[in-house]
Amino acid sequence: MTNLVDKLLAEQKQLQTPVAKFSKSHDNHELRTDLYKHLIPLEKPREGEQYAFQVELDKCTGCKACVVACHTLNGLDEDEAWRDVGLLESGNGFQQTVTTACHHCLEPECMHGCPVGAYEKEKDTGIVRHLDDQCIGCEYCVLKCPYDVPKYSEKRGIVRKCDMCHQRLVDGEAPACVQACPTEAISIIKIDTAALRSENNFLPGAPTPEITQPTTRYIGRNVPADVIPADQSRLVPQPAHWPLAFMLVLTQIGLGISAASLWESTTTAVVGAIIFNLGMGAATLHLGKPLKAWRFFLGLKTSWLSREILAFSLVAPIPLILAAQKYLPDLIVTPAKLGLIPAALGAIFTSVMIYHDTKRSTWHLKTSLPNFFLTFAAAVTLFIHPGLFALILLLQLALEATFLLPTKGSDWSPQQHSARLRLGPLQRVTRARFLTGAITIALAFLNPWLALPVLLSTELCSRHLFFKTTHAPKMPGGLATTRAH
Fold it and tell me: Is 121 exposed, middle or buried (0-12, 13-18, 19+ CB in 10 A)?
């Protein structure tokens, strides 16, 4: 006689996961494209509407079939993914898997930040498309997007991202992720853009929707307001962006030394010009397609990166003029001397705004502005007054010491995350920053030329920490990305 336990065990042997059922129907050639018509709109959006992803949370199992399908259909690189699956959790045991891709925002920061117009938001569909042939690979859109959507392709030297499989939608077919989901958790809907702006509602535990107005709708399950991403506390350093770190240090110190040459010798002017131009050269190494950078003027209206390129292009001749002033008429040298400091401060300000405009709290104006300008001021005073130089560098070190304070307390914050990185995985760089800073001050009283290379080193440590320890907002993570082969 069979008991209840035996019956349940026998039944369990016959159970199949949604993925297994989906695979079986696919192998039996039971799938047809018309089976997905209920998952996409049958008519294009009207005026005031646009396409959007809709995710039913109670149906998402975290199987990552959507990730694999997106990867395969779009021919992505092995380590490239346009759709991710993450996890939300709360202290009372609540857990929720979340599938995410581009949110095709009403106010896409990727598009606003691009210096060369490599993004467009389709007027009739609202889909935010990346124009691969226009991209210069500067990765500024990666820094600007609060959801970690654009992905840089090392192989191609450009950024790429989800385009909602717009060509499939044009032909009346569902995007790859929609077709692949075995539980039909993902669909395409039409949304009223005016209503979305007034709602200002998004997935709890995700970055604030106020910056870009994301359109993805998460429905099907009430998510507690106190949920957090499962990977929130992971201490993962961000990319070092070495070309940008060198560019910031060398241009700021180069311009500072050039400014010091107004009171010093021509030799100082020559050194300043060399260091500055090395920084300008380093900036091009950050571009995947540097030969296309001449198109930067297309983004002047919205992109601080375009404005930085313009500002440094305008200031670039001045250090060279000062270095060669013995051979040039006063008609050229005098305006260069008068315009150097205002132009230098303006150019450095654009560098500050590039990072402030990403809305990352650790790159806020109140921290980046004094940090960058103190580097310039230190370079100016190094050859003029060692005491003033020591005061400025001590002020800069004291400012950075305050970055280490938020480790106390239990509440997580971006500042606490940055501080823990500085005192944890990057503690050697943090120690090197303060040690080389102290050595620089000591050498400045002996000989400024001895202090200069150490100043470059200590400022490079500072910029390395600037990039590596920032908190980069993104959608909930915690589940490893599936690779498709």
Answer: middle
Q: Tell me the average pLDDT of the chain.
A: 91
CB 213 within 8 A of CB 443: no
Please tell me what DSSP assigns to residue 57.
Answer: G
Task: Pick the closest to residue 86 from 482, 416, 360, 411 (CA basis).
Answer: 482
Domain 242-468 of CATH type 1.20.1630.10: yes
How far, in Å, CA of 76 to CA of 81, rounded?
Answer: 7
Q: How high is the pLDDT of residue 21? A: 62
* Contact present, 415 and 361 (Cβ < 8 Å): yes
Q: Round to whole Å and give the CA distance between 484 and 25.
A: 21
| Helical packing angle, 427-446 and 386-401, nearest 10° | 170
Give the residue from 212, 117, 122, 114 showing the smallest Cα distance to 166.
Answer: 122
Per-residue confidence (pLDDT) for residue 23, from 0 to 100? 65
Residue in this structure with the two tokens 């303060």, named with its chain if needed? 434
Least Cα distance to 452 among 466, 464, 441 occurs for 441
Residue 175 — left, alpha, or beta (φ > 0 → left; ψ -120 to 50 → alpha)? beta
Measured from the Cβ of residue 435, the count of other Cβ atoms closer than 10 Å reads 12
> Cα–Cα distance between 214 and 475 in angstroms, integer?
12
Burial class (CB in 10 A: 0-12, 13-18, 19+), 154: exposed
DSSP state of 328: S
Is the distance from CB of 34 to CB of 46 less than 8 angstroms?
no
SS3 9: helix
Q: Which residues contact 337 (CB under 8 A, 6 or more apart)?
A: 262, 322
What is the 3-state secondary structure of 175-202? CHHHHHCCCCCEEEEEEEHHHHHHHCCC
Q: What is the pLDDT, as a whole number, of residue 480? A: 56
Query: How many residues appear in the chain?
Result: 485
pTM above 0.85, yes or no: yes
Please name every residue paired with 191 in a beta bridge, in sequence order, or none if there are none. Answer: 50
**Domain map (residue ranges) of the chain:** 38-229, 242-468
Among the listed residues 375, 417, 421, 411, the one whose alpha carbon sits nearest the alpha carbon of residue 395: 375
CA pair distance 125, 143, nearest whole angstrom: 25
Q: Give helix 386-401 / helix 365-382 axis angle, nearest 10°.
A: 160
Could you tell me the fold of the domain covering 38-229?
A: Alpha-Beta Plaits (3.30.70)
Query: Residue 435 pLDDT more than 50?
Result: yes
